[in-house]
Every structure is written in structure tokens, then in C-alpha cells.
Here is the input.
Amino acid sequence: MIDVRDATTFQGKVFELQRAIIDAQQSVFAANDERSALIEKISNLEKELSSLKAWETEKQRYELNELYLGVFAYRLKEPMTGGEPIHNLCAACYQHGKKSILQRRDKGMELLLGCPECKTEIKIGYARWPTPPKL
Here is the structure.
């Protein structure tokens, strides 16, 4: 009887130990999942920080410029061209950290600059009729 009692007690202790081991393994798996999520978050934040630093550097190459009465865009500074042609960036996209070069678009007689990113159109004037040839 004593052997049966000891065996039952032993089996109970083994069961408790196995449950503790399983709980510990689940805690390790949960900690590993959390660690992986944190590593991914850190990586994403490092990429975002790098992108923001690059944009801050790029922003220094441009200055706010009035293209037409009351119409503003960011223009590449003369000494910062680095071989690029002078161009204008959309002010709205610039404020959102995007570099979107304004492109000329004509609608009938209106001269427009359009942003390919946000689709903003800026009227900058009107086309002139060509001078007729002298007869």
C-alpha cells in the first residue's frame, strides 16, 4: 500500500512538473513573439527616422517662391542644382514630406502647373496668340 501511495504521489509530482514545464515553454514562446514584434517595430522606426533625415536634407535645397500672384511653390535653389534643372515642387506635397515636381499642363488658353502626386492644378497665366506673320 505504501508503494502505491508513493507511486501516486510521485505521479502527481511528475504531472505538476510537466505542467510547469509546459507553462514555461508557453511563456518563452510568448516572449519570443513579443521580441520579434519589437525588433520589427525598431526596424520600421529606424527606416522612418532615416527617411525623415533624408527629407530634412533634401528640403534644404528648396525655398518658397511666388510663381504667380498669390501662387507659391518650392523652387530648387540656384547653388543647390547639382546638375539638375531648376524646377518647382508642389507646396502641399512638400508640406507632407513628398517631393513632387510640378509639370506644365495646358488647358485651352490657360497655362497650368500640375502636381502628378496630389493632382493640384495651379493656373500661372494664359497663352498668347501667336503673332501673325508680316505680309
